[in-house]
Write a structure and sequence with these properties.
Length: 273
């Protein structure tokens, strides 16, 4: 069930193989991918579970989707490997973006759907890449009833839920970096950024510099970002008190970044030795 053997000479790309063509190997790979997808679509077409058969049309037409269909006891499992963001959104968001903040737009998620022969209930899980920890923590798997919502609509809902939060975090990281001395940031999931800040010590002429680690939580902007000051000389660190932070989840990223920066500077200045 795990493997299916096929003679490669059945593929047209192998029959027309030429060492002079640079793209010859890529055509063979594409033929293998098409054959793999056709085999899995055949399993769906022969399925006795009506809800599983409903997935056939979407999987057949989805070019960027890898599919695995296999049996597990009295259940049938469909595993879809999908890009997080659809191509039109990827182009729309990235075309005017700073090259430093494009992120890992090619990240893929695994949508695993379990259909049972003995129960109408559908079990569904979404697996994220290990470097998208914040996206995973902030995501809730939607409830799916195939007779009410199609598989394409479900996939788009999942993508939107992940991608929208991802874009919001990216905008805040970009805004923070623009208004301060950025040192480094999470270029995959946009969950954190390290900045260098110089302020006067308690209003005096003495200037002090501190590295600040800003964490953007999974439920941002509903949940307020957190920040920690890192003092490399003394090896001390402390959390920024955002009790008096002016904040609204409806504000644009630039205003939120400005308020965060103002509050962080005041905190560092007041705690300066």
């Amino acid at each position: 069930e795990a493997f299916r053997f096929v003679e490669l000479d059945k593929f047209f790309s192998v029959k027309s193989w030429s060492f002079e063509q640079i793209s010859a190997l890529s055509w063979i790979c594409k033929d293998i991918q098409r054959f793999h997808k056709t085999c899995n679509l055949g399993k769906l077409a022969e399925s006795k579970i009506s809800n599983a058969v409903l997935c056939y049309d979407f999987i057949e037409k989805c070019e960027k989707c890898e599919v695995f269909v296999y049996e597990s006891g009295s259940s049938q499992i469909i595993k879809l490997i999908l890009p997080v963001n659809s191509s039109y959104k990827e182009n729309e968001e990235c075309v005017n973006a700073n090259e430093l903040f494009l992120g890992k737009v090619g990240s893929k998620i695994v949508l695993k759907i379990l259909f049972s022969c003995t129960s109408p209930e559908i079990e569904m899980t979404v697996k994220f890449p290990s470097d998208m920890k914040t996206s995973r923590l902030g995501f809730q798997v939607p409830y799916w009833v195939p007779s009410i919502k199609s598989l394409p609509a479900l996939v788009e809902e999942i993508r939107d839920a992940i991608y929208y939060k991802w874009i919001q975090r990216r905008e805040l990281v970009m805004a923070i970096a623009t208004g301060s001395g950025m040192l480094e940031y999470d270029a995959i999931d946009f969950s954190s950024v390290n900045i260098y800040i110089q302020v006067s010590a308690n209003g005096s002429a003495k200037m002090i510099g501190r590295i600040v680690h800003v964490v953007i939580p999974p439920n941002y902007p509903v949940q307020t970002p957190e920040a920690k000051v890192l003092d490399l000389l003394s090896a001390n660190e402390w959390d920024i008190n955002f009790t008096f932070l002016k904040y609204s989840p409806r504000w644009p990223a630039a205003r939120i970044a400005g308020e965060l920066f103002h509050c962080i500077c005041n905190e560092i200045s007041q705690n300066a030795a």
